[in-house]
Amino acid sequence: MPTKPPLGSGITEWQVGAEVAKLNVNGRVVDIQVEEDTPLLWVLREQLGMTGTKYGCGVAQCGACTVHVDGAALRACAMPVSAFNEGQKIVTIEGLSPNSSHPIQQAWLALDVPQCGFCQSGMIMAASALLAANPKPTEAQIREEMTNICRCGTYNRVIAGIQRAAGIGTSG
């Protein structure tokens, strides 16, 4: 059993024996003392204070934890921090745009897409990655690519928001 770290050391019990990881998060390289199998989600939320990325299921099925890694949507709850290095660019909802000016965020606001909002940061991250890869997706492509779960059932508004951001849908 590990001994407790000295008081005032800034090290919590669970960090004893942890390794230092270097990550590039929202354009900033950070050093984090963490166990190598800790999911990226918990590093973002608990150690970096980026609570916009949500915990939903813990098995990469619901998408509430979606972030971008080198521009691709990735579910952070099931990926250990050891899978990443400082050369990879991790972007959270907090880093998507400094003032909510991303076209997806603007479309979400204009169409009042969220209901409860819990899943929406993951939805926004998945949708923005979709548009980065395919700027003018068809409705069928949106339905195929957007696999995030919304317990409130806002799927039609999500589709409309993506279409609006892409400049191919209705205006509200």
Give the helix tally: 6
Arithmetic mean of pLDDT: 90
According to CATH, the homologous superfamily of the largest domain is Beta-grasp domain
- How much β-strand is present in the residues? 5-15%
State the separation between the terminal residues, measured CA to CA. 59 Å
Q: What's the main sheet like?
A: 5 strands, mixed
* Number of strand segments: 5
Radius of gyration: 18 Å
Overall body shape: globular
Q: What is the CATH T-level topology of the largest domain? A: Ubiquitin-like (UB roll)
CATH class of the largest domain: Alpha Beta
Protein structure class? alpha+beta
Number of domains: 2
Low-confidence stretches: 1-9
CATH architectural type of the largest domain? Roll
Lateral strand order in the biggest sheet: 2-1-5-3-4
Helix content: 25-40%
Summarize the structure in words.
The chain is globular and about 45 Å long. With 172 residues, it is of the alpha+beta class. It folds into two domains: 13-95, Beta-grasp domain (Ubiquitin-like (UB roll), Roll); 103-166, Orthogonal Bundle (DNA polymerase, domain 1), CATH 1.10.150. Helix 3 packs across helix 6 and helix 4 (120-133) packs parallel to helix 6 (155-166). A hairpin with a 2-residue loop joins strand 1 (19-25) and strand 2. It is 31% helix and 15% strand. It has helices at residues 40-47, 93-96, 103-111, 120-133, 139-145, 155-166; strands at residues 19-25, 28-34, 66-69, 72-75, 89-91. The protein contains six helices and five strands; from the N terminus they run ββαβββααααα. Residues 1-9 have low confidence and may be disordered.
